[in-house]
Amino acid sequence: MGVALGLVCAPPVMAMAMLLANSAQTPAAGAQDAACSDASAEGLRSWMGRRQPESPLINLSDVFVSAGRDAGVDPRLLVAIAAQESALGTAGGGVEAHNAFGMGPGRRFPDWEAGVREAARLLAASYLSDGRTTIAAIGAKWAPIGVPNDPSGLNTSWVASVESLYRELGGNPSAPVASDAQECGRRLPSGSVPLPMAVAPQVVGTPNAPGSTHDPNAWPDNWQSDNAVDFAMRTGTPLRAVCAGTIGPNVGSLGAADSSRFGGLRFTLICDGGPRWYYAHLSYLATVVRPGARIAAGVAVGLSGSANGVPHLHIAVDRGDPMTAFGLAAGGAG
After folding, report:
1. Which parts of 106-248 fold into alpha helices (H)?
2. Which H/E stretch holds residue 218?
3. What pLDDT score was predicted for residue 192?
4. Main-chain phi, psi angles of 131, to 5 degrees
């Protein structure tokens, strides 16, 4: 039920912003246990390359993934800690010791891979197993405040900094950081693209359906309106990026009342080397959603809203069948 018209930015809604930041995801019914695509080697490599192009860890993104999953730790947490402790292996006393994580005192490793794997093992064995499953709880032991080896008080900002980095990587810092606890939109068994939400998909509008608001033979006759799926969900449901990419130029209001067919906020996500995905009828846009911004897959992009009196998300793609992409029944894309 969307159309690419107008550009009127809407002010953030504080209550919904807090809901977006703090909401724990509910697993999608019938979905397989798969990590978000932003936790993939490709996603981590892309993030590290943008943040610290000289990092020796960039080409070890697959090691972060395998070490994290072997230990049951979200690989994004390992990357966030390495970014905080050593600027991804480029700064501090651990560089020569291949210790990007501040493990100590004086711990040395033969290479970067050994350091990554030990950090994952240590988090699993000495933190998660003791019930320290959130970044705040981990930080109290990993970087305790007021200890003699932190005379400048850098540990006071450790938790906030790692939470910020983890959120930038697409994780939910308020939820446990075990690899199976971060559900940011699951991929259905036959889908090539993860769902943009964690709730079970309830399709109320299919692509290119004659006689509907997705009718390819009726105004406005564009892929944003026609080649789309409408997912029913309560207003305020957290939404995620289905791919890594760049936010398109038109972000904000469709210029119509929420009760109309074109109500709510919208944006386009241009996937790296892939299609464009159009989100519409949102009630809130995350601060990362701005024209030209780079965004990782799985990152929180906003909250669902309502249009035409129906609470739902309208999501369209410029090529192929979005229903097939999500692993649902084919919807008749052209």
Report:
1. 112-126, 135-142, 158-168, 223-226
2. none
3. 86
4. 90, 5
**How does DSSP classify residue 1?**
-
279 bridge partner residues: 267, 315
CA angle at 161 for the pair 160 and 165, rounded to the nearest 5°: 120
Q: By the 8 A CB rule, do 256 and 39 touch?
A: no
Least reliable range by pLDDT among 8-17, 100-109, 250-259, 287-296: 8-17
Q: Is 146 left (phi over 0), alpha (psi -120 to 50) or beta?
A: left
The region of weakest confidence among 92-106, 272-286, 297-311 is 297-311
Q: Residue 127's closest CA among 61, 60, 176? A: 176
Answer whether 0.90 is exceeded by the pTM.
no
Query: Which distant-in-sequence residues (6+ apart) come within 8 Å of 129 by Cβ?
Result: none
Q: Where are the domains of the chain?
A: 37-168, 186-325
The torsion angles phi and psi of 161, rounded to 5 degrees, stand at -70, -45
C-alpha Rg value of the chain to the nearest Å = 21
Question: For residue 7, which phi and psi values (nearest 5 degrees)?
Answer: -155, 95
pLDDT digits (tens, 9 = 90+) for 208-224: 888 888 888 888 889 99
pLDDT given at position 333: 39
Q: Which two tokens stand for residue 201?
A: 């998909």
Are the folds of 37-168 and 186-325 the same?
no
3-class state of residue 241 by DSSP: coil
The pLDDT of residue 7: 27
The per-residue pLDDT for 10 is 30
The architecture in CATH of the region 37-168 reads Orthogonal Bundle (1.10)
What CATH number should be reported for the domain whose range is 186-325? 2.70.70.10
* Averaged confidence pLDDT in the chain: 82
Question: Residue 24 and residue 20: Cα distance in Å, rounded?
Answer: 9
Would you list the DSSP string of 138-152? HHHHHS-TT-TT-TT
Alpha-carbon distance values, 49 to 27, 61, 122, 331 (Å): 31, 10, 26, 37
